[in-house]
Specification:
It contains one helix and seven strands. With 140 residues, it is mostly beta strands. The protein has a seven-stranded antiparallel β-sheet, covered by helices on one side.
């Protein structure tokens, strides 16, 4: 049985002003994607046990990458520019790869926060949070 390791993953991002193909965020360290589904109570009157059906699906997540001298002209720079866009239509493209590079979660979303920081003796890292608009396409 083959397992995938975290270092095999990657992140691609392109804001709405970019070309159709996503650019790899160089120096990606980690990413998370949380998908949740609401449930509706459809229990009939007089029933002894509750019944539920699935409803609206929402997703959000985060990623962290190392900031480099070239980051301003790459997808990392696009992420930093996207957070400064008001009235964002949620049309930035995200692709979160896991495994061998063919397995991914693809979606459109809005960058909701960016955390920048620097520590003496450490590499400069950037953390972003995002909210998904629309469906997440999973290629497993």
């Amino acid at each position: 049985m083959a397992f995938y390791r975290g270092e095999e993953g990657s992140v691609c991002f392109k804001n709405a002003t970019g070309v159709a193909n996503s650019d790899t965020v160089v120096g990606s360290r980690s990413w998370t994607l949380n998908i949740t589904k609401d449930v509706l109570d459809c229990t009939a009157l007089g029933a002894n046990h509750r019944s539920y059906v699935g409803s609206l699906i929402a997703a959000s997540g985060s990623c962290e990458f190392l900031y480099s001298a070239a980051a301003g002209s790459t997808a990392a720079g696009d992420i930093l520019a996207d957070i400064n866009t008001t009235e964002d239509a949620g049309d930035a493209t995200f692709e979160l790869y896991f495994g061998d590079g063919t397995k991914k979660a693809a979606f459109s979303g809005v960058v909701t926060s960016v955390d920048l920081g620097a520590s003496l003796g450490d590499l400069q890292a950037v953390s972003i949070n995002f909210t998904v608009t629309g469906a997440v396409t999973l290629t497993a």
